[in-house]
Amino acid sequence: MKLNAVRRNRIVNTSRIIREIWTSRSISRVDLSRRLDLNKSTVTNIISNMLENKLVLETTEGPSTPQGGRKPVRLEINRNYGYILGFEIRPESYTVVAVDILGDILFSRTESIDINAKNFKDIFFKLQDDLEKELTWIGRPLIGIGIGCSGIIDAPKRIIRASIPLQFTEPFDFYKEIAIHSKVPVYIDNDANSCAWGELTFHRTQNLQNFLFCLIEFRDVAKSKAPEQTAIGMGIAINGNVYYGRNCSAGEFRSIYSKRSKNSGQLSLNYNKNYPIVEEPEIIEHFIRELSKHLALFVNTFNLSQVFIGGDLGPHMTERFRSVLNEEIRNNWPYNEQVDCEVRFSTLGDKSVAYGAAGLVMNRIFIDLEVLEAEDMNRFGSLELVGNDAV
């Protein structure tokens, strides 16, 4: 279905209004009109639909103006409007979180399960059905699902181009095989990109623009059947959006030193694959130092404001990582002034990818309504939010 110009303009304005309410947390109609340069009747009309559909609520009155008069009624997003499921899918297990639309985690679980290209579709629909039944206690409807997994994912088209861990050796059309058959909108992205979306979406008040999210995982080779213990992925945000590159492979990483090693992994580590490297201080030090050299190069080349690091880092590693990374950023910078880049560590640990996948959904169905497919708008109910003009 194609949208006519009037319909498209209304969708864009609705998206802008939702984004502003969501970012501000509480705002009046007058302030919405002023900030977005929209006339008051447009704002009132769109807000009426949102109130009718219970996406937004009128809350306690704010302070009156200096001239006195009636206090403005403020608007905020209704956190009980629905919940979102975010998944991280790994070959040997999955992690799922349920979050409300303000980003608070309502439920989480990690469970062992064998997942690969052959059973991916069946397992997804079983998990969706089982969790919807189990989570009725949340008391609100499921409105969207996000999935993060390793591999080259064409997120805009929702195609898994390749995934070595999940054994996708040929492109899998996730949209046609799964998303289009779901009762709610379903989105998929690379695991590190999902983490970047999580930072952009749930830290919206910080107006993040240019940063890198480095996702680090230490795998049990025997259980996961992975070729290496270490896995590193990077999600790159430029001007407030995740950058995918021409073939959606931006963020795939391999050290320039890796060929010096007998190991075939992403870094030049030599270790016994049957022994956990997290228990080997010298190897971990090598890991931190080599990865930090690469991150420093990216920070200074692209003038990034933040580096987020998430995944399987215990507390004993985080401070050492911060120290080494800041040192390497300084070493890589040729000028006298200090590099202004903040190093942050995700507090979500093994939930980082699943939470980020939920953030991806939030961004699609609340922040960027104008990029929704017509079918997804029907599933989500966005057609009601933007009125019933002809399409």
Describe what you observe in this structure.
The chain has about 400 residues and is an alpha/beta fold. It has 3 domains: about 5-75, Winged helix-like DNA-binding domain superfamily/Winged helix DNA-binding domain (Arc Repressor Mutant, subunit A, Orthogonal Bundle), CATH 1.10.10; about 80-195 and about 350-385, ATPase, nucleotide binding domain (Nucleotidyltransferase, domain 5, 2-Layer Sandwich); about 210-350, ATPase, nucleotide binding domain (Nucleotidyltransferase, domain 5), CATH 3.30.420.40. It is built from 12 helices and 16 strands. Strands 6-5-4-7-11 form a 5-stranded mixed beta sheet. Strands 14-13-12-15-16 form a 5-stranded mixed beta sheet, sandwiched between helices. Helix 1 crosses helix 3. The longest helix has 22 residues, at about 280-300. It is globular and about 75 Å long.
Strand and helix layout:
Blueprint: H1 5-24, E1 27-28, H2 29-36, H3 40-52, E2 56-59, E3 74-77, E4 83-89, E5 93-100, E6 105-112, H4 120-134, E7 142-149, E8 152-154, E9 159-162, E10 172-173, H5 174-177, E11 186-190, H6 191-202, E12 211-218, H7 221-224, E13 230-238, E14 241-242, H8 281-302, E15 306-311, H9 315-332, E16 342-345, H10 352-367, H11 374-380, H12 382-385
Parallel strand pairs: 4-7, 7-11, 12-15, 15-16
Antiparallel strand pairs: 1-3, 2-3, 4-5, 5-6, 8-9, 9-10, 12-13, 13-14
Mean pLDDT: 85
Written as H for each helix and E for each strand, in order along the chain, the element string is HEHHEEEEEHEEEEHEHEHEEHEHEHHH
Counting helices, strands and paired strands, the structural category is alpha/beta
Biggest sheet descriptor = 5 strands, mixed
Number of helices: 12
- What is the CATH third-level topology name of the largest domain? Nucleotidyltransferase, domain 5
Distance between the termini: 7 Å
Spatial arrangement of strands, main beta sheet: 6-5-4-7-11
Counted beta strands: 16
The radius of gyration is 23 Å
* Number of domain units: 3
CATH level 1 class label of the largest domain: Alpha Beta
Low-confidence stretches: none
Beta-sheet strand percentage? Answer: 15-25%
Overall CATH architecture of the largest domain: 2-Layer Sandwich
